[in-house]
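Consider the tokenized backbone below.
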């Protein structure tokens, strides 16, 4: 009985083991039959080492060297408008005439009174020679003549104020002024701006103050004229740093012979400082920014990826190193390429490019587009038929 029981238990155990082995082999076959994920198509670029000129960059506003909204000191009726909107005028050019008939009449009256005072003085001086009048009378006549002449000058100034002239050379703005229109004292008539040269005002952090000097060359660009550069020199640096922003104001004079730059324009300002420096560069699109840091995807062969992610172990003497992704982005001997996520520290930007301060080496192959569908270890297929912009000095394309 005991022997029979042992045989039965043994048979049951063998049956269970056989069933478990069969199930294990079935599961392994199913896992092996699952298709591997298809490689993700990406474009790649090599990390380049370039010489970048050290620069200060800022944004500024264009202001006229001389600019004013012209107005009148006295009220009156517009008689003539001697300019057209947008016209270039010279200093002293007559722009607007107000009706001055009554003021001119008063001027003539004052001139007649002054002339009469001069006659009286001359006559009394002749009588003084024969002691017919006293010296006191001569003094009174002299003072009266001076007063009358002062009245003439005062009235002449009033008449002159009825003629508005350009205080300096420049370009006039748009006006709605018309003959017959009444204007009050202080009303704006037209704007006048000197366009060549023109100022650009901008601010820089106080840390960059040591690299600035009066006479330093400034390069300027505006989005109104893409691809066109303007240059000038720093003419003034504020002696005071803003206590709130810790910025210092800088003013530069920009040559504007074609008068393309206009006051009020937004401008990008760059100032070359020192010599050039070597930088590891990538297209800005290659860097992914996350709350936990900036990353890129480095393309490697599967063997190189396994070696990079495997726990560190001493290499056998004479063992060859695992190959990295080749420069031509073709996997050698049919090896699969994979993407390895790497943390990087970024530096300054220049056009479409960004400098990599830490995390990469020159010559490494990095995913430049398509990284949004990748994770660490994802197989990739390289297609560089379309590449993102990668120029330190891009020229915007017309829409």
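A designed sequence for it:
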């Amino acid at each position: 009985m005991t022997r029979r029981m042992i045989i039965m238990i043994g048979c049951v155990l063998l049956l269970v083991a056989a069933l478990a082995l069969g199930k294990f082999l079935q599961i392994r076959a199913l896992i092996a039959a699952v298709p591997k994920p298809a490689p993700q198509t990406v474009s790649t670029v090599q990390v380049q080492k370039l010489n970048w000129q050290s620069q200060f960059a800022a944004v500024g506003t264009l202001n006229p060297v001389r600019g004013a909204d012209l107005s009148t000191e006295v009220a009156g009726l517009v008689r003539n408008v001697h300019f057209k909107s947008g016209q270039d005028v010279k200093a002293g050019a007559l722009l607007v005439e107000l009706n001055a008939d009554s003021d001119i009449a008063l001027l003539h009256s004052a001139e007649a009174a002054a002339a009469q005072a001069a006659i009286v003085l001359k006559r009394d001086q002749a009588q003084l020679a024969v002691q017919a009048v006293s010296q006191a009378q001569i003094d009174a006549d002299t003072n009266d003549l001076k007063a009358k002449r002062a009245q003439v000058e005062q009235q002449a100034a009033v008449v002159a104020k009825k003629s508005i002239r350009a205080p300096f050379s420049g370009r006039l703005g748009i006006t709605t002024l018309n003959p017959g229109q009444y204007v009050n004292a202080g009303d704006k008539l037209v704007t006048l701006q000197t366009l060549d040269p023109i100022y650009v005002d901008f601010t820089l952090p106080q840390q960059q103050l040591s690299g600035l000097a009066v006479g330093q060359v400034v390069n300027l660009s505006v989005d109104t004229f893409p691809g066109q550069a303007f240059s000038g020199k720093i003419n003034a640096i504020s002696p005071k740093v803003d206590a709130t922003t810790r910025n210092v104001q800088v003013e530069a004079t920009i040559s504007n012979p074609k008068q393309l730059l206009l006051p009020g324009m937004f401008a990008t300002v760059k100032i070359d400082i020192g010599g050039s420096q070597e930088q590891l560069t990538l297209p800005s699109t290659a860097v992914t920014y996350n709350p936990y840091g900036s990353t890129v995807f480095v393309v490697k062969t599967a063997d190189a990826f396994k070696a990079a992610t495997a726990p560190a172990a001493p290499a056998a003497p004479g063992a060859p190193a695992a190959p990295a992704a080749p420069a031509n982005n073709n996997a050698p001997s049919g090896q699969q390429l994979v993407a390895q996520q790497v943390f990087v520290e970024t530096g300054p930007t220049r056009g479409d490019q960004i400098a990599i301060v830490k995390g990469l080496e020159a010559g490494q192959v990095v995913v430049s587009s398509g990284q949004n569908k990748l994770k660490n270890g994802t197989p990739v297929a390289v297609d560089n038929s379309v590449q993102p912009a990668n120029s330190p000095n891009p020229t915007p394309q017309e829409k």
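The two ends are 97 Å apart (CA to CA).
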